[in-house]
Write a structure and sequence with these properties.
The radius of gyration is 16 Å and the shape is globular. With 155 residues, it is of the alpha+beta class. The chain contains 3 helices and 4 strands. It has one domain: Gyrase A, domain 2, CATH 3.30.1360. Its cofactor is Fe cation.
């Protein structure tokens, strides 16, 4: 790892020292009018050891993006990481870490009882053929089983 500070926060994180699953505050940005954007790293798979398969990841993204908004109006975005090991969860004006954990917990429990993947069609999705409700539910189930570990980022 370079000693030089990188512009991208996650590039400065030593991925060999973290222990998934976890939820960590990755950054806070304050807007010109005082709004605070909180970005959380929701790591599901151990970096460089495992990754989510695309259909399951894609469906979990759709489900969490839709269902999380049933629990908060502070959600801005849930974005998958390119490495396929987790998601970025971005909220506005919401800095209560324990509440964020509860929000993720409630959302994942909603995923477990979902009957379909929202917006899983060619009109609403750019790769509608790449989805797996069962895969997303398996990821949610595994993540919830380790709920007590979410606040432990480093091994």
């Amino acid at each position: 790892m370079s000693d030089k500070e990188m512009n991208v926060e996650s590039f400065n994180l030593d991925h060999t020292k973290v222990k998934a699953p976890y939820v960590r505050l990755a950054g806070i940005k304050t807007g010109d009018h005082g709004d605070a954007i909180h970005k959380y790293d929701l790591r599901i798979c151990q970096p460089n050891k495992a990754h989510m398969e695309m259909p399951a990841l894609h469906s979990l993204e759709h489900l969490m993006a839709e269902l999380s908004r049933n629990h908060t109006d502070k959600m801005l975005d849930i974005s998958p990481m390119g490495c396929q090991t987790g998601f970025y969860v971005t909220l506005i004006n919401h800095d209560d870490y324990d509440d964020v954990l509860d929000l993720i917990d409630k959302t994942l429990n909603d995923v477990l009882v979902a009957k379909e993947v929202p917006a899983c069609n060619e009109m609403q999705c750019g790769w509608a053929a790449s989805h797996s409700l069962e895969g997303a539910q398996a990821l949610a189930r595994d993540l919830l089983a380790k709920r007590n570990e979410w606040n432990q980022v480093f091994a």
